[in-house]
């Protein structure tokens, strides 16, 4: 029996998310379908986590167990022959028997991309959130540093989050300008449902002058008098990498 680790890139625009769901086609469903075509029998993959409908990934990690003795090139190139154009296996590796895509993970890094422009961009529409108003990066950076550290992120999750605890550690929040684009890179030990999108939505409100930077600290203390965090649209979010 061999354990195979796959690193997968996908455009999540047309999928209901990573996880198999009854209301549409998921990325996991497509990966498992490709595996069945490659191996001739059903296979279940275990991922490092979930991404919501419309969210993308450059480095989603999953693993599977198999008795088939295939070279790594077959796990990558063979699977890619059966996968739709929006999904690709970037890397295939043999993993230790005790490796688990989810439970062995030490951290993740997400990138949220904002398009700062009055005119829509047909080329960026699937991978960014268009923000027409000017943003105060100094205030956003100040607010972003409040997220760093171990906090209770209960105010930064949506209903349906099944996490047993809402305490998470954020390692860093970085602002990276690239012309009209503003990338917000957020790394941490793990994330709650819609946590990154709500963090970004709050930072954008700070940048627009619609809430003060101090609101972040109040939200982290579950201050009920503070306006709830805004959830940024799904299409701007991408899972960049998972650390082990």
UniProtKB/TrEMBL annotation:
User: A GO molecular-function term, please?
Assistant: RNA binding
Matching InterPro entries, A to Z? PsdUridine_synth_cat_dom_sf, PsdUridine_synth_TruA, PsdUridine_synth_TruA_a/b_dom, PsdUridine_synth_TruA_C, TruA/RsuA/RluB/E/F_N
Active site, renumbered: 52
Q: What is its EC number?
A: 5.4.99.12
The record's keywords, sorted A to Z, are: Isomerase, tRNA processing
Q: Where does substrate bind?
A: 110
Against SUPFAM superfamilies, the record matches this protein to:
Pseudouridine synthase (SSF55120)
Q: Which Pfam families match?
A: PseudoU_synth_1 (PF01416)
Where is the Pseudouridine synthase I TruA alpha/beta domain positioned along the sequence? Answer: 8-104, 143-244
Catalytic EC class: isomerase
Coiled-coil segments on the chain, per record: none
The family annotation for this protein states: Belongs to the tRNA pseudouridine synthase TruA family.
Q: How does it assemble?
A: Homodimer.
Its annotated function is as follows: Formation of pseudouridine at positions 38, 39 and 40 in the anticodon stem and loop of transfer RNAs.
Cited PANTHER family: PSEUDOURIDYLATE SYNTHASE, TRNA PSEUDOURIDINE SYNTHASE-LIKE 1
**What name does the UniProt record give this protein?**
tRNA pseudouridine synthase A
Q: Which organism is it from?
A: Malonomonas rubra DSM 5091
The record lists the lineage as:
Bacteria, Pseudomonadati, Thermodesulfobacteriota, Desulfuromonadia, Desulfuromonadales
């Amino acid at each position: 029996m061999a354990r195979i680790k796959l690193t997968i890139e996908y455009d999540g625009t047309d999928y209901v998310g990573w996880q198999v769901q009854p209301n549409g086609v998921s990325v996991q469903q497509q990966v498992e379908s490709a595996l069945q075509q490659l191996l001739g029998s059903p296979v279940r993959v275990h991922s490092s986590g979930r991404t919501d409908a419309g969210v993308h990934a450059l480095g989603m990690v999953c693993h599977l167990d198999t008795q088939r003795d295939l070279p790594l090139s077959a796990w990558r190139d063979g699977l890619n022959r059966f996968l739709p154009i929006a999904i690709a296996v970037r890397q295939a590796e043999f993993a230790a028997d005790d490796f688990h895509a989810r439970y062995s993970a030490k951290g993740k890094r997400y990138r949220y991309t904002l398009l700062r422009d009055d005119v829509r961009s047909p080329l960026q529409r699937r991978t960014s959130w268009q923000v027409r108003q000017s943003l105060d990066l100094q205030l956003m950076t100040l607010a972003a540093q409040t997220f760093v550290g171990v906090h209770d992120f209960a105010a930064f999750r949506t209903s349906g989050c099944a996490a047993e605890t809402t305490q998470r550690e954020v390692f860093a929040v970085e602002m990276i300008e690239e012309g009209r684009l503003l990338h917000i890179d957020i790394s941490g030990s793990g994330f709650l449902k819609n946590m990154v999108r709500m963090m970004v939505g709050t930072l954008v409100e700070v940048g627009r002058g619609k809430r003060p930077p101090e609101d972040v600290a109040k939200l982290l203390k579950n201050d009920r008098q503070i306006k709830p965090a805004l959830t940024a649209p799904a299409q701007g979010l991408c899972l960049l990498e998972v650390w082990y």
